[in-house]
Amino acid sequence: MKIIVLKFGGTSVGSVDRIKNVSNIIISYIKKKYRVIVATSAMSGVTNELVKKSEQISSNFTPEEYDVLVSTGEQISCSLIAGRLNHLGYKSRSWLGWQVPILTTGNYSSSRIKNIYKKDIVKYLKLGGIPIIAGFQGINFQNRITTIGRGGTDSSAIMLARFFKAEKCIIYTDVDGVYTTDPNKIKKAKKIKIISYEEMLEMSSLGAKVMQPHSIQDARLNRIDIEVRSSFKKIKGTTITKRKNIINNKIIRGVSFTNNDAKITLIGVKDKPGVAASIFEPLYKNSINVDMVVQNISSNGKETDLTFTIKSDDLIKTEKLIKKNKKIIFKKIIVDNKVSKVSIIGVGMITTPGVTFRMFNALAKKNINIIVISTSEIKISVLVNRKDLNKAISVLHKEFNLEN
Amino acid sequence: MKIIVLKFGGTSVGSVDRIKNVSNIIISYIKKKYRVIVATSAMSGVTNELVKKSEQISSNFTPEEYDVLVSTGEQISCSLIAGRLNHLGYKSRSWLGWQVPILTTGNYSSSRIKNIYKKDIVKYLKLGGIPIIAGFQGINFQNRITTIGRGGTDSSAIMLARFFKAEKCIIYTDVDGVYTTDPNKIKKAKKIKIISYEEMLEMSSLGAKVMQPHSIQDARLNRIDIEVRSSFKKIKGTTITKRKNIINNKIIRGVSFTNNDAKITLIGVKDKPGVAASIFEPLYKNSINVDMVVQNISSNGKETDLTFTIKSDDLIKTEKLIKKNKKIIFKKIIVDNKVSKVSIIGVGMITTPGVTFRMFNALAKKNINIIVISTSEIKISVLVNRKDLNKAISVLHKEFNLEN
């Protein structure tokens, strides 16, 4: 069987008309002789309404009941899609998490899929049926409804593709793919036709919010090809796949950025073992995510300057935590709430020397000051003043030939 | 264990505030040392919204998927009630039809409860938990969600009371009980404290829309005491019970009526065997409900006059069906769309002679013409001109001392 998994996000099934549209998309794959498995999100807005109700009932709503509550969203959309396909003369039915069953482990509201029992669905596929699976939900060993944390229905779709050995998993959403950078900022941004899991992971965690990093990681671990595309336009999307499937590799795949960073510099910190830990431990305990960290080597061996970045929203809290921390001694604290991070991403940089130089040189030519630098195998990030952000994205996008 | 079943209707759980109110009602029974099992309807409006969506998807929406769709309504309300009880410090959890499980038979959308598996819930009750059961839903042998037809959550509650051998089943709704007649029409209408199943059946099928006849019948067959009361007011409702539990029996319990009848008279029908059947068969096949039927004996033995009543809405269709029916020959058809039925109901009439006389006499004194009469063991109904309806209700309500 040539199996394909189609996932539809909340906006794709956001109204009766869109559910009709989605049903036509499903049929187009049936006509191409695919066996189709559908995973669907809740109609957009429905989950938020339910969450609002739970918050009005209790500021600390029971997680077990929360999952019973919010899982109705996907139950509604999967029955409507199946009903529409029936209306059009196709054999189709809905499957809820407990009916498949999709077994999950972990806590309520943040469960992970452990196993998908295939038997009934395989039988149904062989009979020519189209199973519509409620995404985002499963059951646990206690026979209670669970919902899947990070990734939600994307995770459901990727795990379905894995268990059913699907040829491909297509994520239908409200954007038509992944771009070399934000098309709202840079008009010359181009859609990326093909991208590796690793590059996509860096792109998504840095702000290209097409898919949750967790789901991309699931796909990577299971070697499942994903296509991200729009359910509103009939155009090809972006394929996310193994590195070796990408033939015509560009050095740099895209330029990503963040808009809401803040920088803290501690001047004259006593340089002794454990000082960094004593600074970052209280931040970690308060769920404050530290991103870039730079420590200058001190000239006298006794003092050092430490710079790190956090999200702007966490700035006030972080400053307080540091000031009341008796364990660290420093001369001065400097905060800057007007910085942004710009990154270039591409597996090509591993085998191509001089990428760092080209990046710094291009920025220097435009008088853009680099505040902090951090690098990984396939990514170089620099912190710049926020006023320079657009200029930085633009010059790097051009420098690495992403406009063509 | 002293078990009580509480059922909450759609308006009783119609908002977050009402769910909070309902949770307090539940707790009041816990404080009285009851083990409480709750059956809940969907929040009012929710089911209609879902039905509307299904109609927009298809004018002929698949029943299987319809049940998956509409059963989300009760799933939402039962999780919110359990969540609220948890918030207030009580041990509570939701149970969906498939989790109990509540096994049903029959067609989708009109299933009937066949069995309720008690084990898990009994265990939970013994631990002091409050199970909140989603009403109106079950599963069938195919492991698919079904919904219960006539009676809905009332039926769920009564069957729960039966299987758990509950002391009583309390139906919380938006009316505060059953009245001797419609209080909107007759100001002196009084709430009935206690009524037999049989009387309630006649009352409800004649227009007192407090409970579905089907659910009352379920309660009667299983000898379950029901109290119907308001979730908005802290006052006693109406208890529906076995005849022998009613000590101070009035002859007549109430006056009910219909507002939308029509009468058809066929003059000069050929009087031969099978003629009535040939008239009513096509009506039955078109789901037209015939209520009262009177046939005058013909003087010559060859012709007869036949009168029957139907709902006003069915009049045009019925007239057409009769006129195009070649099997019946008649001289003339007379229709009257302005008639109403008034009934007096009471088990007391079985043992009390003269009730019929008192009824006819009271109506005659007020110059109210009786068009058709029909009687059962505990009910006498008369058809009157609609303009006389209010006068008729009023005089009968007074005649049988229902004002006191």
SSE order and pairing:
2 copies of one chain form a homodimer.
Chain A: E1 3-8, H1 16-31, E2 35-40, H2 46-57, H3 63-70, H4 72-87, E3 92-95, E4 102-105, E5 112-116, H5 119-126, E6 130-134, E7 137-139, E8 145-147, H6 153-163, E9 168-173, E10 194-196, H7 197-205, H8 213-221, E11 226-230, E12 238-241, E13 254-257, E14 261-270, H9 275-285, E15 293-296, E16 303-311, H10 315-323, E17 332-345, H11 355-365, E18 372-376, E19 379-385, H12 389-399
What percent strand of chain A?
A: 25-35%
The CATH topology of the largest domain in chain A, please?
A: Carbamate kinase
CATH architecture of the largest domain in chain A: 3-Layer(aba) Sandwich
Let me know the CATH homologous superfamily of the largest domain in chain A.
Acetylglutamate kinase-like
The helicity of chain A comes to 25-40%
Radius of gyration of chain A equals 24 Å
Question: How would you characterize this protein structure?
Answer:
The structure is a homodimer of 404-residue chains. By secondary structure, chain A is α/β, with parallel strands linked by helices. The first copy, chain A, has two domains: 3-174, Acetylglutamate kinase-like (Carbamate kinase, 3-Layer(aba) Sandwich), CATH 3.40.1160.10; 257-399, VC0802-like (2-Layer Sandwich), CATH 3.30.2130. Chain A is built from twelve helices and 19 strands. Chain A has helices at residues 16-31, 46-57, 63-70, 72-87, 119-126, 153-163, 197-205, 213-221, 275-285, 315-323, 355-365, 389-399, and strands at 3-8, 35-40, 92-95, 102-105, 112-116, 130-134, 137-139, 145-147, 168-173, 194-196, 226-230, 238-241, 254-257, 261-270, 293-296, 303-311, 332-345, 372-376, 379-385. In chain A, the strands form four sheets. In chain A, strands 3-6-2-1-9-11-12-10 form an eight-stranded mixed sheet, with helices on both faces. In chain A, strands 13, 14, 15, 16, 17, 18 and 19 form a seven-stranded antiparallel sheet that branches. Chain A has a two-stranded antiparallel sheet with strand order 4-5. In chain A, strand 18 and strand 19 form a beta hairpin. In chain A, helix 6 (153-163) runs parallel beside helix 8. Chain A is globular, with a radius of gyration of 24 Å. The two termini of chain A are 39 Å apart. The interface between A and B is large, with 37 and 37 residues.
